[in-house]
Amino acid sequence: MLQGTIKIMTKDRLIGNIMGSIAYLMWGFLALYWKLIVTVSPNEILVHRIIWSLGFIIFILALKNDWKWFNIIRNKPKFWLLYIASSLLVSINWFTYIWAVNNGHTVDASLGYFINPLFSVFLGVVFLREKLNRPEKIAVSLAILGVLFLTIYYRSLPWVAIVLTISFGLYGLIKKQGPLDGIQSLGLETAIIFLPTLFYLFHLEATSQASFLHCSMTTNILLIGSGIVTATPLLLFGQAARKIPLSTLGFLQYLAPTLQFLLGVFIFREQFQFPKLIGFSIIWIALIIFSIARFSRKYKM
After folding, report:
1. Is the pTM of this model over 0.70?
2. pLDDT tens digit string along 22-42?
3. What SS3 class is residue 271?
4. Rounded Cα–Cα distance for residues 264 and 31 (Å)
């Protein structure tokens, strides 16, 4: 009996690790997808990402017959305000990332997602009154130092990284306050901004700025597929989160920015001078310290 239970737990963990890894690998390789439709403006890509994500999520929810969650938020203005805010934040995050990839800033985008775990910790301290131990404080301080170094050297803020960090960090903080899971909340968020998005799509068409249905069949299919590549990793992540510890997911999350960084440097051939390497290295050291500190706290080493 005990051996059977252990086998089930081991199998669940294995499946969870596979699902989590695939989710983060998909997020990491997403830059390649946006590069395939670089001829389409980031505005229009965002529009299609929202519209087709909503369509795909409605399909998934219909298959699962998962609609009871709507009763939870129907008459609660607080939750509606939360999800309106999260829909705006995720739109900003999506647009910034698409723009960054298709304008030669994939490496800068990866920096934003490297910093994000540390920024989330900072938000937890400020808004949730969480406490940091000494190594975690050192890690956060080093991350700030790395950003300051890049800012001073290049005489400008690494705004792509900062926008992605802040938008995604606040997005995660807000979603923690709501009652819905990942796929439900994304469905609601895309539904909230669906009409403005649709009107903007009509505007693009009316002013002859639209690419959809006026470009190659491949590009049209890729624009439609943007909804699937958006929602699928989220579905996998949601399942993984139920099967494996959050500490494991915490380590897996570095897969995505690592892949983004490697794609930016070695595939897209973006500039990566030595000063930028110094700034990144400071932040990578911060992440190593942070990860060890969190692991030690988890297992009380």
Report:
1. yes
2. 999 999 999 999 999 999 999
3. coil
4. 9
